[in-house]
Amino acid sequence: MVQPEERGNDQIGRMGGVVRRMDQLGRVVVPAEARRALGIRHGDLIETRLESGRVVIVKYEPVCAFCGGDEKLIELNDKCVCNDCVGALVEKTSRALIDDASARVYEELIHAGATPIR
Ligand SMILES: [Zn+2]
Predict the structure, then answer these.
(1) Distance from Cα 98 to the centre of ligand 1, integer Å
(2) Residue 39 needs a FRET pair 20 to 30 A away by CA distance; which of 57, 80, 98, 118 works?
(3) How many angstroms is it from 87 CA to the middle of ligand 1?
């Protein structure tokens, strides 16, 4: 087995990456240099995914579940929604409620004796 090369306090693998040992719970410390480069700080959410047989670690950047936007986000049931999409949902919901209420009032007026003109 080829051992990583020691350099300072770290070990460097064949491909030039920092080599760290995984613990029994599957945890690996992301090197400070990589954390700084990605702007990752204590408490940040980290996304891991498999890509072509590799584990990719990126800082989790929430986006709107509807449009993919990343400004003025709120979280609802573990999904993010932006201010614009909240506005669009309110508008559609309001329109549907108004249409429904209008239809009911119209039917009640007809029932009460109003005469439809067209
Ligand atoms: Zn949105």
Answers:
(1) 24
(2) 80
(3) 9
Domain boundaries, the chain: 62-118
Determine the pLDDT at residue 41: 92
pLDDT digits (tens, 9 = 90+) for 74-109: 998 888 999 999 999 999 999 899 999 999 999 999
Over residues 62-76, the mean pLDDT reads: 93
- pLDDT at res. 1: 64
Query: Cβ neighbours of residue 24 under 8 Å, at least 6 residues apart?
Result: none
| Residue carrying the six token digits 């506005």 | 87
Distance (angstroms) between ligand 1 centre and the Cα of 97 equals 22
Both tokens of residue 73? Answer: 């986000």
User: How far does the centroid of ligand 1 lie from the alpha carbon of residue 86, in Å?
Assistant: 7
State the chain's mean pLDDT as an integer: 89
φ/ψ of 48, rounded to 5, equals -120, 145
CA distance 81 to 67: 8
